[in-house]
Write a structure and sequence with these properties.
The complex is a heterodimer of chains A (74) and B (220). Chain A has 74 residues and is mostly helical. Chain A is 65% helix and 11% strand. A two-stranded antiparallel ribbon of chain A has the order 1-2. In chain A, a hairpin with a 2-residue loop joins β1 and β2. Chain B is an all-alpha fold. Chain B contains 6 helices and no strands. In chain B, α2 (42-66) crosses α6 (182-219). Chain B starts with a helix and ends with a helix. Classes of the chains: A mainly alpha (74), B mainly alpha (220).
Chain lengths: 74, 220
């Protein structure tokens, strides 16, 4: 189980976030730690989190109404 | 919680896609440059749409076989969600085209086929709205849906391959197989398709549940 979790965490590891970009198919080191790309990633992640929370909220709401209708019928 | 595992997989896949999609290694190609990252966002829209429409077709076939109203609801809501992803695919594709091909739209076989395909599915929605009788609506739209899907697949996957096309993967123009880092891109692309498809299924599932509630209320 630990190995599985470690594998999934490793998928999220992005070494090139701070050192790698590729040029002409070869990997070269450039200093991208201060190009602030991570800001865009963070912003998109926040927007996506908002959308997911919104979907969850609708999901719960529909679930509540389903229960209500079910109890009304019986 | 046990019923929601697939939603969780979808959401995690999409976080992975967003993180790696922006920061992962990409091959350096002229014209495309960083816009190649659209592979993780524009292309999965079409893949998700296709999978949703495929599921919709399966439920239309099921409906004609067993005549269960529930299958009609599932088929139509899956189709509507698929159409939504198709619209997003067209819009994102236009932005990408403007910045790589220099124009919002060209009369490329792939683009025109996609547009015709979308119009076919708009017609599906209009057809459903136009018929008041519930059973007739379900039967006619199921038959239409079953015919529309293969035609759509031929339109966007077969015909563009037979002629010259600007779009990658068509007319002798390779898809992302050509790139040096194709395997690294695949490692992000496939989770992206999975994630967007599961998100689409989640939205479709919500729509189906709402539709079922509406049906119960209308019957009482």
């Amino acid at each position: 189980m630990k190995a599985v979790i470690a594998f999934f965490l490793s998928l999220f590891h992005t070494p090139n976030l701070d050192m790698l970009t590729s040029v002409q198919g070869t990997v070269t080191e450039t200093d991208t730690s201060d190009n602030k790309l991570f800001v865009v990633v963070a912003v998109v992640a926040v927007i996506f989190t908002g959308i997911v929370l919104y979907l969850l909220f609708i999901d719960k709401k529909v679930g509540r109404i389903e229960k209500q209708i079910h109890s009304d019928k019986s | 919680m046990y019923k929601h595992w697939w939603k969780l997989i979808g959401v995690v896949s999409l976080y992975y896609t967003i993180l790696r999609g922006f920061t992962g290694e990409i091959p350096h190609l002229p014209i495309l440059e960083e816009s190649i990252r659209n592979l993780y966002f524009h292309v999965p829209m079409w893949f998700s749409m296709l999978l949703l429409l495929l599921a919709s077709t399966v439920y239309s076939i099921k409906f004609l076989g067993k005549n269960k109203p529930e299958h009609d609801i599932i088929a139509s809501e899956l189709a509507y969600t698929g159409i939504f992803f198709g619209i997003l695919g067209i819009c994102t594709g236009m932005i990408w085209a403007k910045n790589t091909w220099g124009t919002w739209w060209t009369n490329d076989p792939k683009l025109n086929s996609a547009a015709i395909g979308m119009l076919m599915y708009f017609a599906y929605a209009i057809l459903r709205d136009a018929i008041d009788d519930v059973e007739k609506k379900a039967r006619i739209s199921a038959v239409y849906n079953i015919f529309a899907f293969p035609v759509f697949v031929v339109l966007i996957f077969v015909l563009p391959r037979l002629t010259a096309s600007l779009h990658p993967g068509n007319g002798g123009n390779p898809g992302f197989n050509q790139y040096d880092l194709d395997n690294k891109m695949r490692l992000i692309f496939y989770p992206a398709v999975l994630g967007w498809t599961l998100l689409g299924l989640w939205i479709a599932h919500l729509r189906i549940r709402v539709k079922k509630i509406e049906k119960i209320i209308n019957e009482n």
